[in-house]
Amino acid sequence: MRALITGVTGFAGSHLAENLLAHDVEVVGTCLKRESRHNIQSFGADIVVREAALDDTRLLSNLIDKHRPQWIFHLAALASVGASFGAPIRTMQVNLLGTMRLYEVLRGKKFVEKIVFVSSADVFGPLPPQRMPIKPDYPLRPVSPYGASKAAADIVSHQYYRAFGLPVVRIRAFNHTGPRQATGYVIPDFCSQISRIEKSHRKGIIRVGDLSAKRDIADVRDIVDGYRLAAERGTIGDAYILASGKADTVENYLLMLFKHSTADISIRVD
């Protein structure tokens, strides 16, 4: 079995590559030119990585024809919710049009057995507690440009399945964290601030946002296991939700991190 991962050098992409290797799946991946390969340095020799942007359809097609992967995992995207507000058009170009370009390349490639499109729980928008646990058929009501781009690509994924027979399975993943996640996301941001305070050997202040918000944050290694299982067992045309199933306040996540630190830290809401 061989798999292609778009965005293989990213946070989740690198963990997915490791997961697939552990299950005897050959891995081919794409990344952008001059993109850091730090996340895959420990196992990079075991996979094939090629520089290929989603808008370079000729290069993508040649790469896929050469390696003939049975599974495609589409992870490449602009993934920051906050940054998407400053670049909504660029976010839509990459996340929606990039997905469509990949699907156009994959049309007619009969050796592809399953395409796993990684969407996001942000496609749902605000979720009422009384509707928990959320079901895949809950209406898509995104409130961020990122969520809108993923919702549009999610809909297009289903359309390509219905209209062109592409074997797409959609994954709507809730928040996940773990090793290699960059700052710009809540847990790494907390950890980096705590780390700086520890290194200073002085009392410190950690600046935070709204700590009352509830989030379902899973381990990335569990989430990518779900990606693999979607390729193995997912029903083509269906959408699946991946989450831990347990929401907690951001404050409790922060206090959990404090328990692992010996530093004297106070909290300041910014």
What's the gist of this structure?
Helices cover 39% and strands 20% of the residues. It has 270 residues and is of the alpha/beta class.
Please bin the fraction of helical residues. 25-40%
**Secondary-structure element string:** EHEEHEHHEHEEHEEEHEEHE
How many domains, as an integer?
2
CATH topology of the largest domain: Rossmann fold
CATH architecture of the largest domain: 3-Layer(aba) Sandwich
* Main beta-sheet annotation: 7 strands, parallel
Low-confidence stretches: none
Strands of the largest sheet, in order across it? 3-2-1-4-5-6-11
How are the elements arranged and paired?
Elements: E1 2-6, H1 11-22, E2 26-31, E3 48-51, H2 57-67, E4 71-74, H3 81-84, H4 88-106, E5 114-120, H5 145-164, E6 168-173, E7 176-177, H6 186-200, E8 204-208, E9 214-215, E10 218-219, H7 220-233, E11 239-242, E12 248-249, H8 250-258, E13 265-269
Helix pairs in contact: 1-7, 2-4, 4-5, 6-8
Report on the structure:
This protein has 270 residues and is of the alpha/beta class. It folds into two domains: 2-177 and 217-245, Rossmann fold (3-Layer(aba) Sandwich); 186-214 and 251-269, no CATH class. It is built from eight helices and 13 strands. The chain has helices spanning 11-22, 57-67, 81-84, 88-106, 145-164, 186-200, 220-233, 250-258, and strands at 2-6, 26-31, 48-51, 71-74, 114-120, 168-173, 176-177, 204-208, 214-215, 218-219, 239-242, 248-249, 265-269. A seven-stranded parallel beta sheet has the order 3-2-1-4-5-6-11, with helices on both faces. Strand 5, helix 5 (145-164) and strand 6 form a beta-alpha-beta unit. Helix 2 packs across helix 4. The longest helix is centred in the middle third of the chain and has 20 residues, at 145-164. It is globular. It starts with a strand and ends with a strand.
